[in-house]
Write the structure tokens for this entry.
Amino acid sequence: MDKSGKMTCAMIEAAVDKGLRDIEENPRRGIRNLVDLGTQLSTSRFHKDFFRTSQQMLRNENSPYYELTNHIVRNVNHQIIKHFGISLGYTSLTYGAQRIREYEKEYGYNIPWTIVFDFREDTKNMLSDAEISEVLLYGESIGIYCGMFFVNKNQAHLENLVKMLASHKDSAFLVFTEPQIITDVIADVIVESSNILVALSSQTGGEKQSFMEAAQILFDKKCLYGAYCGYNGHNLQEVISETYSRQIKEARCTFTFLIREEFNNAQNEKRFSHFMQATKSANKDPFFWIDFYEDLAHVDRTISVEDCFLAIQGDGQIAVKTLAALQEGINIRTHSLQTIMEKTMPKNQFI
């Protein structure tokens, strides 16, 4: 990040410090003041829309987002709130977004605002931490300051990964993990890094106890965390049920990602779309519902006009559009990130 960006970060950090103190003294007034300040400081279309929507939600005195914000301020380490929030909100979605647009205009292909790393399959030829770090460094040089990691049940791999991610101080990372491998040691590293948000697998029909135990560890350590769940034609009814949302509330999660898998008919897709629209407009749950593919694509469209999803698997294979859409003959070990984007993301529209 250049000198101007670092100065802006310092000013935003001072404003956030004051906002956190105000919320502790008077939660409702402090939350409204912080959102009003965000509205005034917003320069990008994405942030203007976000803060306008937040202002509308907070006009309702019974909005659950008062409860959610108060929960975050009182129960999450303030350094995480500041560092992760600024890294995602400013460095990635403002400073980085501008860099991305400039690069796209110069080179003529799309650049995703985040790179997804899908390490759920344990292979013998897994990318090393050094290889992952090299990809992240190049991404940062062109404006990509966010990464999302799906990890498997290898505890040592998770611990080494979060230590490496901590060294990329300007970026924000989301780590999607199985609850069974969350330990006090890993939670301590996450807190110390202050740029990592954790999403615990909360698969329907799964073992609820390990999910609740992992959530308790993260809560006790003052981490910023939530949940994620894959949905398909077989478990859709469970995902959109009150039982699932109650589990997320009980675990004191701040969000839940819902990740589309296979649907066996168009009717199920319509049901899910209706559920998401109704849930977000109802404004009744003290956590955020996030449609993984659609909400990531919404940010891409705001920055780049077009969708530009990119995922890297553990052995270096590349997927676009979805985690399952592998590109034959393309691998991060044999092709540079620049070449991969040039081959898979030609740009048709510009802002």
Q: What stands out?
A: The longest strand covers residues 225-231. The domain at 78-344 is CATH 3.20.20.70 (TIM Barrel).
